[in-house]
Amino acid sequence: MLIAMMILSSLQSFSAEGDTVSVNDNWLFLLSDDAASVPRGVETATFDDSQWVLMKVPAHWRVSARHSTKNYVGTYRGWIKHVGLFEGRETILHLGNCTATASVWINGNFVGKTEPNAATKEFNITPYLKPGFNLYVIQMARWDQEDKVRDTQMQSGITSPCYLYGLAPGQRQASPVQPVQISGGLINGVRARIADRNDLEPATGFIDSEARMLEDIRLLRQMNFNAVTFNKASSDPLFAKLAARNGLTIVANGVTSMNKGAKLVDENRQLSAAGIAAWYANQDITVAGRELQTGKIAVTNGSTEMTLTDAEMVWELLADGRVVKKGLVPSLTMTPRQTVEISLPYTTDNIAADKELFLRTIIRRKGSPETVALNLSCIRPFSYPTALKLGKAAAVRRGSRRKPRLNTKTQGVMTISGKTYSLQIDTKTGLISRYVLQGVEAIDRAGAVRPNLPTRLLSLNATKPNKQRGVIVTAVFGTDKGSLTWTYELQSNGVLTIAESKPEQMQLTFPTQLARTNYYVWEQSGNMIATSVDELRSGIRWWKQTDGSGRGVQLLGNGEFYALPTTGTPQLLLHPGVQPFKLTFLPVRND
Fold first, then answer.
1. Which helix (H) or strand (E) segment is 213 a member of?
2. Model-level pTM?
C-alpha cells in the first residue's frame, strides 16, 4: 500500500473549474487466472500490493496462445490525493473504454459497473471520497460471460483515457450516446450501409484516441459506409460527435454489418480484400457493359438523392492484371436514377486470347481526391484450356516434336529425353530428380517437387514412348492417409504435367537461379500481377519463376490454385483449387 501511495501521489492536482485531471499513469496491476483466483480484499486500503507491477492506461494486457481459453481477470489499484480537488463541485470519474465489463471501488466502497455496450462510463464518486489519499480499484475479466472466447491475439484492458472532472452545482453529466433506430433499411431516405468499427481493429488490438477515431471514420467513409453499429467501439461521445460531422450515423439495429465480420483493413491499416469488396458493394453509381468488347458501357446513378456534377471517369483495360490501355472521360454529370451510355476508345482484337480482360472505371470529383465509384467489369474470363493450348504451342515453336527416348537401364534413375528437354525420376522414391526444359533447369534435385506429406513408393510404371502422347509415368505412393497416385505426362515437346489422384498440397522448391517470381492472382480486391507471397494467396491463375534474363518456367493448373509461403527461398506450398488437379510446366511466354 505504501508503495502505491508514494507512486500515485504525483497525481494530486488543484484544477481550475472545467479542467480535467488525468488518472492514466502509474496504476499497480495484478493478473489473476480467473475470478476465483483474485485475492480477497484487493479493494481495501490494508491490502498488500507491494508485489504488483506498474501499468499505465490506455494500455493492453494479453496472454499467451496456450492460455487463450482462460478468462483471466485484471485488477488495477491506485491512490489519488484529493486535497482541494474540485472544491465545491461534485467529482466525476470518467472511465475509458474497457474491453469487458469493469467494476469500480473507491475506498473499499463498490461504486458500480461499466455498461456492456458503452465505450465509456462516468461515475459520480463524490459520496465515496475523503480528504487526502483515496484508493481507486478497477477490476475486469478478459471477456464477459455472454461473449465468445476472445481470439488468441485479442488484447484486453482499458483502451481510452481515464480522468476526473468537477461538476458545478446545477450542471449535468453529458448524456450517453443514443443510437438511431432505422426502419426499411434507410437512413434519411438513403440506403443504410452499416459497418462495425471493430472490423477496423487489427489483431493486436488498439488504443483509442481522437486521431484514431478520425482515421477510422475516414476509412469507413472511404468505403462509402454511412452508419456504424452501436457498441463499445462506437459509443464514445467524442466518436459520436466526430462521426456526425462526417456523415456517419450510429444505429441501434445494425448488429449485422454488411461485411459479415471480415476485417476491412490489413495489418498496415490499408483496405483489405473485404474492405475493397465493401467499397464495391456500397457505391450507388455502377458501370455495366453494353458491348464491353468494343468499349460501350452504361453508367447508372442508383442514388435517390445524389446529383453527380463536374465529375470525371478514369478507365483502364487490364489484361492478366496489367494495364494495357487507359483513358479519361473528362466530364460526367448525372441526376438521381439516370443512366448514361458512353463509348470508350478501345478494342480487344490484338490482345492474346488467353489473357483475362477487365475494365476498371474510377469516377471522381474534379479537383478532389474523393472517389465516388469504383467498378470492375469482366470482358473476358481467364480460360485454362486456351492458356494451356497457347503455352504448348509456344513449346512446339521453340522445340521439336519427336518421339521421346526412355532409358530405364541406369540404376536408380528413369530418364525421358528429347532434343530440348530431359526428365529424370528417382526409381526409389518416385519423385523427379531433374527436369530441364529448353535449356532451363526447372527442377534441380530430388524431392524438389513432392507431396507435402511423408510418402513411400509402392509402384512406378512407364508407357512406351509415343510421338503424339509422349511418355506417361505412374507413381503410386503410400501415405498415412492411404494411397496417392501421381501421373507424370511428358509430351514430345517437353511439356510436363503432374496429375494428382487426390487434392494434396504440393511442395515446390525452385533452383536458386530462378529467383524471380511473378504470378497472376484473382482476389476480391481485384486482379493483379504479384511478385512475392507473404501470406496465403488464393485464386492464382498462373505462376512464373524466372532468372535475371527472363528465362524460366511457367506453372499452369487446370483451375486456380492456392499458394502458401514457406521458409525456403524460392519455395512455396501449392494447394489445388479444383479436383482432379493437374499442374503443367511450360516455357515462359513474354507476350
1. helix 210-222
2. 0.61
